[in-house]
Structure formats: C-alpha cells, structure tokens
Amino acid sequence: MTDEDRAAYRKRRMAELLAEAEADVTRTRAAKQEPATEAGPVVEVKRSKWLTNLVGIIILLALSFVLIATSMTIGRFTGHDFADARRTGTATVEQCERRGPISLDGFGYYDQCTVTIAWNNGPSSRVLIDKPGFFKGEKPGDTLQIGEHTGSRGSIGYSRPELPDRGWVTAIGIALWIIGALPLMAVLFYLREIFRDLIRRQT
Description:
CATH 2.40.50; 7 strands; 22% strand; transmembrane helix; membrane
C-alpha cells in the first residue's frame, strides 16, 4: 500500500467517523424532543379526565339534592299526632309569607305564617310556624285548631287535626333521604382522596 492509498483510506475512515458522530447527535436530539412532543397528548388526557370527574361530581350533587328535596316534600304530608298534644288551642293567622318553589325544604310553594294562639289552659302566645305543608292556604284573620308538642332538646312543634301523623309517609321520606345522602357521601369521599393525594405529592 502506497502513501497515497494510506492517505485516501484515512480520509474515508475520517469521513465515516464524522458521519457516525453526526448520526449520533441527530438521534440524541430526536430523543430529547420526543417527550416534548408527547406532552401535548398527556396534558389533553389529564384535562379530559378532570372535566369528566367534574361533570360526575355535579351530576351526583344534583341527584343528591333532588332525592333529599323530594324526601322533604313528602314530609309535608305528615305531622305530629294532634291527640298527643300537651295542650291545644285556637290559632288566629296574622300574616303569611310565601316560600318556594325550590329550596332545602323541598319542591313547591308553602306558607310561613305568624299566628296568635289562645290556649285552652294558659295565656296566649304569638309564634312563627314555618313548617312546610302545615298551612292550607289560610289568610290573615282565619282561625284553626292547633296543638303544641315538645321534642328533643326542648324543641317545640305544632299539630292540627287536618294534618295527622302518617307513619308510612315518614318511612318513605326517611328512605329517600338516606338514598339521597349516598351520592353526597361518594362526592365527599372522592374529594377527601384528592386532598390526600395532593398532600402526599407535596411531602
């Protein structure tokens, strides 16, 4: 092999090495750029999952509200047993305020009235009765029979003969309330897990 052949071989070998080095650099740059190109789809997937979870939470909360409000509405068709009242009297309606149609007390309108009660065995009293379904469209000046009941922790309730105690109505209302509380509990459990996950990531 002559000196010219050796020089030509060295040039070819140098060119091959340079080509390999350039190829390595190109592959390295491409590998570094791959995560950046894949970040877009990952972000979109996370955003889509977050929106799906948010919609699910809203649906569960709406379902819980509808069921609980329905149970409260059913509760308007039952009351204390008038025969069990500790005292009875005659109530005169002074003024009423219309409430509803959608509230934590259920669906539909109901009246909240201030009445003066002349008890059969005691002095008169003036009270505000806001139990949904208690009044049946009475106007100021109308009178009605009323009974007074004591509840737990000193609470006071009222009854009237037209709104008797219906145990089966109470049972249906309680069952719906319990069913309505389940979606709410699921949402609270889910949010608790999210907060726990955030705390773990920060520690």
